[in-house]
Amino acid sequence: MARHLSGKEVNASLHAEITEKVLSLKSKGVFPQLRLIRVGENPGDLSYERGTARRCEELGVVMTKTILPENVSQEELLLAIQEANQDKNVHGILLFRPLPPHLDAALIENAVLPEKDVDGMTDASLGGVFTGKRIGFPPCTPQACMAILDHYGIEVQGKRAVVIGRSLVAGKPAAMMLLKKNATVTICHTRTKDMSAIAREADILLVAAGKAGVAKEGFFREGQTVIDVGININAEGKLCGDIDSASAEICEAYTPVPGGVGAVTTTILLSHVVEAAENALAWQEA
User: Fold this and answer.
1) 101 with 177, same domain?
2) Model pTM greater than 0.90?
3) If you placed Cys at 241, which of 56, 78, 128, 257 could pair as Cys (CB 3.0 to 4.6 Å)?
4) What is the pLDDT of residues 73-118, one digit of tens each?
C-alpha cells in the first residue's frame, strides 16, 4: 500500500517558518499584507477567498480586498491594480482568474508589478522560472509540489520525471523546477502517444492534466512517487484528483486529493507575501 504524502504535515513545517518571519517583520514595523482583487461572485473564487482569509489569520498576514462587479470596465480594474501597486503597505497582489471574457486578461495580469506578483502569473515571473533568474515569484501550485518533495526527502537529482500537462499554471513551470533540481524531464500532453508507457518509466510522476482519473491503471509501477495536482469533482460529487488513487496504490507514495498539493498551495502563496515584505524592507534599508 502506497504512503500518502499529506500536505498537512508539510504545512505544519512551513507555518513554523512563516510565523517566525512574520514576527520578525512586525518587530520592525512591517505588517505583511496581501491585496485580493476579485471580479464578480464566482463560487470557486469565494471558496478560495475564504480559505485564504483563514490561512492569513493563522499566519498573521493582513488581507485586504478590492471587490469589483462582473461588468467592471478594463480601465477600472487597471486602476485598482495600479492602486495596489503603488500602496507601500501592500506586499502581494492576488488577482482571481479567469477574468470575464470582455477583459484583456493578458494585459491586466501583466499590470501587476513582478515584485508583488505572489501568484506567479505575469510574463516576468514566468520568465524567471524558465530562465532560472529570480524575477517575481514562481506559480504557487508547482512550487507546492516541490515543497512536498523536499519535505519528504524525495531525491530528484538524476531521476526520471514525467509531467502530464503543459499549462503555464502548473505543468510547464513544474517541469522547469524539476529540471532545475537536475531531473531528466519528459512532458506529456493530449497528443502524446502511448502515454501510459511513458508514465510507467517515471521515478517521479507529476499529473497536472486537469481531468479526473486521466492517470489510471497502467500508468503506475512500484517504486514511483506520484504528485497529483488535479482538483476535480467526480460523478458522485466528491473532490478528486487527476489520478485514479486505487490504481496508484501500487506506487511507493502519492499525494492525496483532498489534502495534498492543494493544501500546500495557499501556504506557498503567503510565504511569497512574507518574502515580498522582506524584500521591500531590504530595499528600504539599503
Assistant:
1) no
2) yes
3) 257
4) 999 999 999 999 999 999 999 999 999 999 999 999 999 999 999 9
Q: Are 174 and 163 in contact (CB under 8 A)?
A: yes
Query: Taking 80 as the threshold, does the pLDDT of residue 286 lie above it?
Result: no
What interhelical angle do 123-131 and 171-180 show, nearest 10?
30
The verdict on residue 144 lying in a domain is yes
| Pair 102, 157 in one domain | no
Same domain, 92 and 196: no
Structure confidence at residue 255 (pLDDT) = 98
Q: Is residue 189 part of a domain?
A: yes
H or E element at residue 24 = helix 7-27
Tens digit of pLDDT for each residue in 231-257?
998 888 888 999 999 999 999 999 999
pLDDT at 207 exceeding the cut of 80: yes
Sign of the torsion formed by the C-alpha atoms of 89, 93, 99 and 105: positive
**pLDDT tens digits for 14-55?**
999 999 999 999 999 999 999 999 999 998 899 889 999 999
- Between the alpha carbon of residue 83 and those of residues 107, 112, 212, the distances in Å are 16, 10, 39
Do residues 160 and 52 share a domain? Answer: no
- At residue 34, the pLDDT reads 98
218: left (phi over 0), alpha (psi -120 to 50) or beta: left
Cell of 45: 473564487
Q: Are 39 and 49 in contact (CB under 8 A)?
A: no
Q: Give residue 196's domain range.
A: 140-262
Closest CA to 70 of 109, 106, 96, 36: 96
